[in-house]
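Sample log: HAD family hydrolase.
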Amino acid sequence: MGANRIKAVVWDVDDTIFDYGRADLDGMRAHLAVEGLLEAHGGEEAALARWKTVSGTHWRRFVAGETDFEGHRRDRVREFLGAPLTEAQAAAWWDRYVTHYESAWSLFPDAADTLAAVAGLCRQAVLSNASLLVQERKLTTLGVRDHFENVVCAVELGIAKPEAGAFLHVCEALGLAPAEVAYVGDDREVDGVGARDAGLRSVWVDRDGTRGPAPEGVERITGLAELPALLTGQTRFGARSTFG
């Protein structure tokens, strides 16, 4: 991976250290039950599958710059309900959902120990495509905010991953060259390829191990517990350490 020593690890948050997928579906399940909407959408399984599809569509629109952060939330609600809600109505429905979603927040089981282990090796920061208000609150609630020197988010930055500028901004905030920084995220293209193309050491977290081989120049792990050994070179392949 080159001669530069890795001096910082920058993390994605959702579906990397925070179990967003589970919290989202558990929160929506509870919300739809309270709203009396499970049967209106063909039952629980169909309703949650539809919500996941709609959410993915509008999240990709946000990442592509086709809408803003709050707008993508309102559009998720409108499409899911199939109703031309006003901005206030869509926002109110979203806020009711968020109450249930936040009650389901949790880290992945391997996250806390890995963050503590990496803290003993180097500096840490966050680069997320969400908003600073959301991620600061989430990381604080989950008890891991103190691990990170910087929390950089796309909404405030005005640039979203996979744009190189997002990755380069967090490197600049740390005062490090891209080659001195490792980025860890769950999205093969947005995180893995994006970080690689920006010149960072790229580590892709493929938790279920079913999303195919890693792109060239991207390292693949199936759990966060693998990360410290990977970065210190203590792997079964005997790779030389670039960490320090």
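Observation: The first strand starts at residue 8 and ends at 11.
Observation: The first helix runs from residue 20 to 35.
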